[in-house]
Amino acid sequence: MEYKEVVLYTLKKPRKKVSRGKLRTLSKLKKDLDTVFSLYIRAKFQKKCYTCPYIGQLQNGHFVPRQYLATRWEEDNCRPQCRNCNVFRHGYILEFEERLSNELGAKRVQELKDARNQVLRLNRAFYETEIARYTQLLNGLLDKEP
Fold first, then answer.
1. In Å, how far are 7, 20, 40, 60, 62 from 76, measured between CA atoms?
2. What are the tens digits of pLDDT across the range 9-46?
3. Pairing between strand 78-82 and 58-62?
4. Were 36 and a residue from 76, 90, 129, 134 both cysteine, which residue would form a disulfide, CB within 3.0 to 4.6 Å?
5. pLDDT digits (tens, 9 = 90+) for 53-102
6. Interior/surface letters 13-43, b for 16+ CB within 10 angstroms, e for the rest
7. Spatial separation of the C-alpha atoms in residues 72 and 64, rounded to whole Å
8. Domain locations in the chain as residue ranges
9. Three-state SS string across the chain, please?
C-alpha cells in the first residue's frame, strides 16, 4: 500500500512557472531612474559641493528628501553635494535652503516644500519615459564636455 502512494505521488508532473516576460519591476525602474537622474544632476551643475567648498567625488543631494516622490526627480530640488554634507550632515538643509533661495527665489523654495505633500502613483510608463528623457539629456551634456 505504501508503494502505490509513492508511485502516485511521483507520477504528478511538477507545475511550471508562468513566465511574465522580461519586464523590469517598478522598483528596478525607480532605481534606474535614480541612477540616470543623479548622473545628469552631477553633470549639469558645477563640479563642487553645493553647500561647502569641497571639490571631489559628489552625490546627488536633495533639498526636500527623496522619500517624497513628488520632488524626488525635480531638477530645482537637487544639487551636487559631497558625501559629508549629503550623508553625515543630512543634506546640510539650512545652508542648502539659503543657497537655493538666493538662486531660485524664496517663492520657488516654498513651492518645493509644499510639493512634498502631493500623493503620486507612478506607473511603468512614467519611469520608462523619464529614464529615456534623462539619458538623452545626460548624453547631450557629456557630448558638450571637452
1. 68, 38, 13, 12, 9
2. 444 555 666 556 678 899 999 999 999 999 999 999 98
3. antiparallel
4. 134
5. 999 899 999 999 999 999 999 999 999 999 999 999 999 999 999 999 99
6. eeeeeeeeeeeeeeeebbebbeebbbbbbbb
7. 8
8. 40-123
9. CHHHHHHHHHHCCCCCCCCCCCCCCHHHHHHHHHHHHHHHHHHHCCCCCCCCCCCCCEEEEECCCCCCHHHHCCHHHEEEEEHHHHHHCCCCHHHHHHHHHHHHCHHHHHHHHHHCCCCCCCCHHHHHHHHHHHHHHHHHHHHHCC
Angle between helices 93-104 and 106-115 (to 10 degrees): 120
